């Protein structure tokens, strides 16, 4: 069984920072690429960032480059999404997902397992 649990969301003001956490099973953490997606109100779900199972490759969407950083925390078996200088446009439900069989992925179809999401709300 593959489980993914997101945490760290909340209500913040523009310019603030948040760090989201994704806690997968140990097997998933070691062998799967992990990605973050988000769905804003009234919009389709979009890619945010992903990191390879070997922790050697990472991607960020153009909309968050320079502000968001994805990383693996091996000591706590988690994948983190550090979000800096948040904007109202970042308001969305953020989902953690796991992609098997590939080193790293950026397309939604590659991610087989999904968490339930955590809400991030940024006020102006």
Rg over alpha carbons: 13 Å
**Net shape:** globular
Structural class comes to: mainly beta
Number of strands: 11
Number of helices: 1
Low-confidence stretches: none
Distance between the termini: 40 Å
Largest sheet data = 7 strands, mixed
- In what range is the share of β-strand residues? over 45%
- Share of residues in helices: under 10%
Quaternary status of these chains?
Answer: single chain
Compute the average pLDDT.
91
Question: What sequence of helices (H) and strands (E) makes up the elements?
Answer: EEEHEEEEEEEE
Record the SSE blueprint.
Elements: E1 4-7, E2 10-13, E3 18-24, H1 26-31, E4 33-39, E5 46-51, E6 58-60, E7 68-73, E8 78-83, E9 92-99, E10 113-114, E11 118-123
Can you walk through the features of this model?
By secondary structure, the chain is mainly beta. The chain has 1 helix and 11 strands. It has one helix at residues 26-31, and strands at 4-7, 10-13, 18-24, 33-39, 46-51, 58-60, 68-73, 78-83, 92-99, 113-114, 118-123. The termini are far apart.
